[in-house]
Amino acid sequence: MDRNFSQDLLLAIERADRAGANAVISAWAEGRDFKRVVPELLSPVLETFGTIWATGQGGVSLATGYVASKIAEDVLSRLLREAGASGEAVPGKGPVVLGNVEDDFHPLGRKMVVAFLRADGWDVRDLGVDVSAGQFVDTAEETGARVIGASAMMYTTAKNVAKIRHEIDRRGLTGRLQLAAGGAVFKLRPELLTDFGVDGTAASAVEASPLFQELWQRATSLDIHVGGPRP
Amino acid sequence: MNSLERVLAALQNQPADRPAFLLNASLYGSRLTGADLNDHYTRAEVYAEGQMAIRETFCPDLLLSPFFVSAIGEAFGSTWRARAHQAPNVRTFAARSAEEALKLPLPDVDCHPRLLYLRETIRILSKAYAGEVPIIGVLVSPSDIPPLVIGLEAWLDALLFQPDVAQALLDRLTPFFVDLGKAMLGDGATGLALTANLANGYIVTDAVAETLTLPTLRMALAELPGPVILHHGGCPLGDQLARFKGLPNLVAYVLNVAEDLGAARRVLGPGPVVMGNLNGPGLIDLRPDEIQALCELAFTQRGDDRQFILATCSADIQLDTPPECLAAITEAVCRAGGAEA
Asked: Where are the beta strands (DSSP E) in chain B?
């Protein structure tokens, strides 16, 4: 009987069993091209896991989500190793810019988002903690990023997301540079997303990649109307 | 009744003239005194003056030592950053991993200047309000110290992937925690308040909690010669209460914002005090009449439960919160007791 790798991987992630998850992935890769692991195994499983996490039905702890991000990092490392060995480039999406907003020093959630995005092929420019609105938008302009992801844990720092919105609008980038935000405070008070002019959020770190995909498409669709992509 | 009698009545399931209440106004004291925040968080007499102003203005039934857990990180060698409108936060960590943290010297609770600052606030307040207002010493449980010393990510790495190292660090930190708790109680604290986030199922896996952090917490609490309040620490606590119920010296539980007080009582049974469930940082966005309505909702939820203390939860009450918002809580409490505010 064929092994159900997706189910086995999901169970390992839910048990926060990093070694077990990597064993499932290695078993899947026997006789297969490892480059296909993300679209064919990891992404669909993480999508299911993200739904369970977001709905709060499976009792998923922060630590379990953290282990899932480590598994994603393990896959990415192996992909990069194998791509390096063969001289191939890993296919890329983006770039996108991530950071904790000004005065926020709680990096864990952001790092998990970075891991999931990179595992799904995104070129992430991670600016770290305590990032000013100007730094976010400067980096986006310098790299051609079309999405900024801002992380904040508490209400007092979440207010700085509004400064990024202001900076985007002030520079005339409204719509063409999308603003995503996430963090504990936005789960507790989702109305803040509207108050601060956020373009999108995800219920869990795992769901960041489809969100960024949607925001990227929204940003680039405006290029058609204004005469093509910016230089 | 004075505040101490009111709080004791709640602990002993006795009638009181009105419900007791707590404001997490550690930061807010500086608004009333006009003190510079750096002075507020480094000079004990300045901080204590802020709590006295809170007491004189709003009459809460418990006062707090600084809600400044970065100070504990600093005692191990971490650095913190003062901020314009908030309590300080850790800026750099003393070590990069649990293994490195094992090599750090344990701070001496009788010598480190920042720990002495925390303790001195308790001495000043307990002297000023002896026999009148309970003073609560704020600290964190042994398993919540490493995030202040090595960061949450490195601590999760140890708890999840190096359990032996994590256990060794917990064993090393527990005597420090006990020393600090004993010192605070010796300084005059009526009780202690602490978080145990790394034993909460919203943060760690059941395996981590059951094999590492909860057994350590049980052992550490048993060493403390005084009552302890468990604070939700930003996580939901209501559906985790069964996990913490019955731990030594735990006499009260502070629930998270809007968590159901009646449901908590059903889990805990008679005995412990249930505290909550007003959103402290969110008061700034509400009108006084809206705050009074939330207080009344909390009183409705508690029903005839005498072992209830109305409390702001989550983080500090924000500095820019209008005083009328806090006065609304005082008024609601007095109205509930049938007394004039």
From this structure: 20-22, 63-64, 79-81, 89-92, 135-140, 191-195, 228-231, 250-254, 273-279, 308-313
Name which of B165, B132, B105 is nearest B5 in CA terms.
Answer: B132
Asked whether the beta carbons of residue A111 and residue B153 sit closer than 8 angstroms, the reply is yes
B86, B151, B203 ranked by CB distance to A63: nearest = B203
DSSP H helix total and E strand total for chain B: 16, 10
d(CA B73, CA B71): 5
**Amino acid at position B53, single letter:** A
pLDDT, one tens digit per residue, over A16-29 is: 999 999 999 999 99
* Nearest Cβ partner for A61 among B86, B153, B201: B201
pTM, two decimals, is: 0.87
Torsion angle defined by CA atoms of residues B182, B183, B186 and B188, in that order, rounded to the nearest 10 degrees: -110
What is the tally of helices (H) and strands (E) in chain A? 12, 4
* ipTM exceeding 0.90, yes/no: yes
Q: Which amino acid is at B107?
A: P
For residue A90, the one-letter residue type is V
Residue B175's CB: how many other CB atoms inside 10 A?
Answer: 13
